[in-house]
Design goal:
By secondary structure, the protein is an all-alpha fold. It contains five helices and no strands. Helix 2 runs antiparallel to helix 3 and helix 2 packs across helix 5.
């Protein structure tokens, strides 16, 4: 009976550790950095859309814009995608990120 209780305790404690861990196993971008990146990406896409009416080279220009944004925040496309994947598995945190992006873009838009 004691081995069964010990086994149950080990399983319970090991499950408990996993639910308490909120940090990713890899280094990810901070929530604030992800917010800033998403804001700049939305602004880039909006400006690229305006250019699309007169310029057929939107794709390469937008791509270069993304590279410049990643460089500005000292990150890469791969790190950004990993951060988005990480935050997307934590719904409340991802909702907070997206709300911050929307709020910032709304403020910028109403400030015109």
């Amino acid at each position: 009976m004691k081995p069964l209780i010990l086994l149950a305790a080990i399983v319970f404690l090991s499950c408990n550790k996993h639910t308490q861990t909120t940090e990713p196993a890899f280094k990810t971008l901070s929530q604030d950095t992800v917010i800033a990146l998403l804001i700049e990406m939305h602004l880039l896409e909006a400006s690229s859309l305006q250019v699309a009416l007169t310029d057929s080279l939107v794709g390469p220009k937008a791509y270069q814009g993304y590279l410049e944004i990643f460089s500005k925040y000292n990150t890469t496309k791969d790190e950004f995608e990993k951060a988005i994947d990480y935050f997307s598995h934590n719904q409340p945190q991802m909702e907070a990120i997206m709300q911050a992006v929307v709020d910032s873009l709304t403020l910028r838009n109403t400030g015109r």
